[in-house]
Specification:
Layout lengths: L1 H18 L9 H16 L4 E6 L4 E6 L2 E7 L5 H13 L4 H32 L4 H33 L1
Antiparallel strand pairs: 1-2, 2-3
Helix pairs in contact: 1-3, 2-4, 3-4, 3-5, 4-5
């Protein structure tokens, strides 16, 4: 079930990306939204954030206090991680309503954590530029993959309880 759902969801996502390649939402609507929401959160923390299209590549430039810090690419929108999460939950499918509600709640949490991690990363790079590689290579993935791992552990516990009942 895992491989089948992962394959189908990945194909759907790739079709989505193909469809929106040349849209007004650069590079695609979800990545564009993630960039804009990350910009708003960084602004909310008291920094002057700005998101601009990167015309040399499919990404958005993230600028904090007039300093170009990073680019937000399609991979930063967490959709691939959401597909992985949903496929895992579907592979341990319980009752329909419970499973679908858990997937929906998990996707919302992953999306929110992704926006938070981009904002934290941007501020971290701005304040501690000497730690950019550590922040992006270790802390950045740890936040999102840690969230997914904890959601998986919670799902396995819920699923195990339902199986033992």
């Amino acid at each position: 079930m895992f491989l089948g759902s992962y394959f189908v969801l990945s194909i759907c996502y790739n079709l989505y990306l193909s469809f929106f390649r040349n849209s007004k939402y650069y590079p695609d609507p979800i990545t564009h939204l993630v960039a804009k929401q990350s910009e708003a959160l960084v602004d909310g923390f008291g920094y002057n954030a700005q998101i601009l299209p990167h015309h040399a590549e499919l990404s958005m430039k993230l600028i904090v206090n007039q300093v170009y810090l990073a680019r937000i690419i399609e991979g930063c929108n967490a959709i691939s991680i959401m597909i992985l999460f949903a496929s895992f939950v579907l592979s341990f499918f319980g009752r329909l309503k419970l499973s679908l509600l858990y997937i929906l709640a998990g996707l919302v949490l992953i999306y929110a954590m992704n926006i938070i991690r981009i904002a934290v990363l941007a501020i971290g790079i701005y304040k501690f530029p000497q730690h950019t590689v550590f922040l992006h290579s270790i802390i950045f993935p740890l936040i999102i993959y840690g969230t997914v791992f904890l959601l998986w552990v919670a799902w396995v516990r819920i699923y195990a309880k339902k199986q033992n009942s």
